[in-house]
Design goal:
Layout lengths: L1 H23 L3 H13 L3 E12 L3 H13 L12 E12 L2 E11 L11 E6 L4 E6 L5 E6 L9 H5 L12 H5 L2 E3 L5 E7 L4 E8 L5 E9 L5 E14 L2 E12 L8 E14 L18 E4 L4 E4 L6 E2 L2 E2 L20 E6 L1 H7 L4 E3 L4 E3 L10 H10 L4 E3 L3 E4 L3 E4 L9 E4 L3 E5 L8 E6 L5 E10 L2 E8 L2 H4 L11
Parallel strand pairs: 6-14
Antiparallel strand pairs: 1-2, 1-13, 2-3, 3-4, 4-5, 5-6, 7-8, 8-9, 9-10, 10-11, 11-12, 12-13, 14-15, 16-17, 18-28, 19-20, 21-22, 22-25, 23-26, 24-25, 26-27, 27-28
Length: 483
């Protein structure tokens, strides 16, 4: 404890020293060193804050989407657009390149069609993966582990200078050293660098505030230097010797010169900063799954129910699974079975006909003209539409980050998965005896049981149903709990 206090004391002293250096510095290198020192003070930080997000889509886009949906009625496809307000309270934790976001949703005016929105969401980024935990309106906890690290939309991190909008990595000394420093005549200085795809990130720092960031711009250099994000930091107060902002406003601007000029506004009110909190440890960046949480491990291509032990195993939670027979009492029924025919993908694609099943709406979807099926263009189209899960082309094909898993009842004849960048191909067992059941988890973490009834030359006939949390436990790959 004494050693920790000494470390904290020296962090304060260094920040004060560099405050003086920055205030009197008249060279780019001295400004960079001051900013480096400031960022070093953020390597163990927790920020608790409230966010109010307002979406204002252009009216012409709303009207165009309405016309598109009317035109697509015959192909059973729809497109949605965000509008309304999102209010939440967030705890952002950061520890030397590891991050954690804990969101408690207070208000949303744009609930989707898939059972509402989560009450709680936690995302942890331990470095080599992404762990997500959600609590849905029914009280059921759902967890996901993915290999891909995709940081969420940035908020307070931008104001602190830890990363820019759209960046999927953190500010490090090597990157800071490459930044261009200008505008040293007054009390402020500008630091900027150009990232991938010609995106320029520019911070304005106040040398009289210890090089605290007072504004930020994200500039599209390949689009005539149009600014599409602006952030202003206000209400600066001292916390353990550091000057920190307690109010931030992040704007997403309309770069097409049309109304409205502001597409999205985030108002951030900081409740508390915690620097060098002794409870902010490595363990914080692995989620301890609550007992009964349904966890989908997309790295190991398996699903399980947490026993709540929270023990670590190879960097993840101990995969000890409860015996479902000991926990199921009067399971709540899910949706009734639906019968459906999924046409074969390639012939349908050549004819311009829809062939991707959206499980939530029981409708077939097409893809953009002149697009290949398992391609980035098609993937982006499906992700933006929020629709599409399953296709057939001699094997099951899951799209839009959906996953097909072998159910426990079919463990003797498992699927053979060939994961791809834009879709996954799951080959059925050789000489298959029908019916054959598959557990499918959509991108929204909705569970479905798919039963293949008949394989035909031009497609497959299936029955499927949406599963309640208790029903889903019957089909997870389970094992007896050790005694």
């Amino acid at each position: 404890m004494n050693r920790l206090r000494k470390i904290e004391w020296w962090a304060v002293v260094l920040s004060l020293i560099w405050t003086c250096v920055c205030a009197g510095g008249d060279s780019p290198e001295r400004v960079k060193e001051a900013v480096k020192s400031r960022l070093a003070s953020f390597q163990n930080i927790i920020v608790v804050y409230k966010v109010s997000m307002t979406y204002t889509p252009p009216q012409k886009d709303v009207e165009r989407l309405r016309q598109m949906n009317d035109a697509r009625e015959s192909t059973n496809t729809t497109v949605a657009i965000l509008s309304g307000t999102d209010k939440r309270e967030t705890a952002f934790s950061f520890l030397r390149g590891k991050a954690r976001y804990e969101n408690t949703f207070l208000e949303r005016n744009y609930a989707g069609e898939l059972g509402g929105f989560p009450e709680l969401e936690i995302q942890a980024f331990p470095g080599q993966a992404t762990e997500t935990l959600q609590k849905d309106p029914s009280g059921q906890y759902r967890g996901v582990i993915t290999e891909r690290v995709l940081l969420p939309d940035a908020t307070v991190e931008v104001g602190l200078g830890l990363r820019g909008v759209g960046q999927n990595s953190w500010m490090v000394d090597s990157l800071l050293s490459e930044m261009l420093v200008t505008g040293l005549d007054g009390k402020t200085a500008l630091l900027e660098y150009v990232g991938p795809k010609g995106v320029k990130h520019r911070w304005s720092v106040d040398r009289e505030l210890g090089c605290a960031s007072t504004s930020y711009e994200r500039i599209l250099t390949k689009r005539n230097n149009k600014v599409n994000h602006v952030m202003n930091m206000e209400d600066f107060r001292k916390v353990d010797g550091l000057v920190l902002p307690y109010r931030m406003i992040l704007l997403t601007l309309n770069t097409h010169g049309e109304e409205p000029p502001i597409l999205e506004e985030q108002k951030i009110e900081v409740i508390e900063y915690k620097l060098n909190d002794p409870q902010n440890t490595e363990e914080r960046y692995h989620i301890k799954w609550p007992q009964g949480a349904m966890v989908h491990d997309r790295i190991l291509n398996t699903a399980y129910i947490s026993d709540g032990s929270g023990l670590q195993l190879q960097g993840y939670i101990n995969r000890e699974i409860l015996d479902p027979e000991s926990t199921l009492i009067n399971p709540v029924a899910g949706s009734p079975d639906k019968e459906f025919f999924i046409p074969k993908a390639q012939p349908s694609l050549e004819k311009g006909q829809p062939f991707i099943l959206d499980l939530a709406s029981a409708k077939l979807l097409g893809i953009p003209i002149n697009s290949e099926f398992c391609s980035e263009k098609t993937h982006r189209h499906l992700m933006e539409s929020g629709r599409g899960d399953l296709a057939w082309d001699g094997s099951l094909i899951t799209v839009r980050k959906a996953k097909a898993l072998t159910v426990s009842q079919e463990s003797e004849r498992p699927l053979r998965c060939r994961p791809g960048r834009w879709c996954n191909i799951d080959k059925l067992p050789d000489s298959i005896d029908l019916p054959y059941s598959v557990f499918v988890v959509t991108n929204e973490d909705i569970d479905y049981l798919i039963t293949i009834r008949k394989i035909e030359t031009n497609g497959i006939r299936i029955e499927y149903k949406k599963l309640s949390p208790n029903e889903a436990k019957l089909y997870f790959q389970t094992k007896k709990k050790k005694k």
